[in-house]
Specification:
Layout (H helix, E strand, L loop, with lengths): L2 H18 L27 H6 L4 H12 L3 H10 L6 H17 L2 H15 L3 E3 L5 E3 L3 H22 L6 H17 L9 H9 L8 H11 L5 H16 L3 H7 L7 H16 L3 H10 L21
Length: 309
Amino acid sequence: MSPVSHLLESIRTRLTAGVTGPFSHAGYPLASTLEHRGDPGLFGADSVTWRVVGDVAAFIGGIRALLIQAAHPEVVAGVTDHSSYRSDPLGRLSRTSAYVTATSYGAIPEVELAIDIVRTAHRPVRGASARGRPYSAATPEYAAWVHNALTDSFLTAYQAFGRNRLSPAEADAFVAEQTAVGSMLRADPLPDTAASLSSWLTNHPEAAPSPGMRETVAFLVHPPLSRMQRAGYRLLFNAAVATIPPRLRRMLGVHRLPGSMLAGRCTVAALRWALGSSPSWNLALVRVGAPIPEGLFLQPLPVDDPTAH
């Protein structure tokens, strides 16, 4: 290996470790997925979901979703009153990532387990918000706010920073696919087109500032990351903010900075060079026996494939 190649490989390794490290504080949800050979899960190899969630632009989508979720006073009260994000932020981040991985790429038994874990965790989450309204995480519309914000954010981030922009029909297909997850969570309503989903979130009458929102935003502005991780995170955070509709941005008290979209595209390009697409997507393709696109995956499979020996 030439000195230049060695240097580039070293940079790639360090960047991959820095990005994936914060998500490694929970068990991998697809550890036994190859025991379910042929099971396409909720979506399958030809779905839009596998493409969207598997791209590194999903990092921006995740940040955006957390910001938008905080704009609902009852939803964010459930987080600030009951979540461990202050004492165990990386654990909560890893568990959220595991949920997305399982519902996106898991075989049906793994999807059902992930949904059951979430619903069990949400059962005791109840109380009163800062504006005096009772809340329960099991309330269909509150579950919808969380789920719909995640769906809209993954789609918006992919359209702005993804590998290949989706056509309008593909964007609608992604939203329609995601209603399968929302239905399992008993969320309602579940808009099934990209335009209706965006409108539902942007113009939602219950969105409003709250103390929990301000606390959550402050945490997302300054998360507990290393100095090197914070530098890259800040670029992703600014890119996420730039894609939030103006009404919600004003409500959250965050500002679109000049050049943040370009910086986001450059950061995502660097991450795509280092990480490639999601290894969980690769693993799901192996499970269903679908062709593996050449050059898409750079990381090793997350679990050992006995048929490869």
